[in-house]
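Annotated sample (chain length 256).
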Amino acid sequence: MRGAEEIVPAEVRQSAIISHSIGIPELTHLLDGVPADAKEEAYEQAALEENVLALATETGRRKRFASLRRLYLFRPDSVLFRSVRDLWAVEAEGRPLLAALCAMATDTVFRASAEVVVRTAPGEEVTVTDFREAIEAAYPGVYAASTLQKAADNAYASWQQSGHLGAPEGGRKRRQRVTCRPADVAYALLLGHLQGARGEALFDTVWTRVLDQPRSQLYDLAFAASQRGMLEYRNAGGVVEVGFRTLLRPLEGELL
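Output written by the structure step:
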């Protein structure tokens, strides 16, 4: 299925968070500064020439943009990125979680770190050590201690950016319930669909588990997304059907 290959398999060690956080504030600046129908080159121009990332040196701008491009792709022919751009315009409240879902799809180390937020209840304390142990458990013996620590630090910062962790209190962060909007549910269901899930199985994936919503609320949010044209959703007689005509529409120049 077109777009499925963009979700990096878990066994592939591909990670931008070894060097940086997932950069939701920087992504916001880029998407605000580049038209939705722009070509890939426009994002690089905005970052390097227009310096929308507000970095002091060209070297810094190049490194940060390279990291962001690995996470978000910035290609109009990418199903993952085009869907982010489609849904980004719908509601600002859902943007942090939308970005985190895309980063999970393209960064396997960040995806492994999601285990920490999934298993931790709101109000519980979360530490960098929790993330380091989760990454090490997923990729035992792969990373040097210094690299593992850097990845854990960046995961810790990234999940605060997404809204899953609160601001530090006395040097500690606590889990909080993330803001989840219909656009986030639409994107999470799309990711599951690209991996082959259908029907009710779409509502029980690694993508939906980071949404912090019970199954009944996910159904309600999916219905709300369908009412706004983000997807097609039916739930009748215990049979759940979800379609993605808009998000999976043909790319420009592609035959139906």
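Annotation: The chain has eleven helices and four strands.
Annotation: The chain has two domains: 4-174, 182-243.
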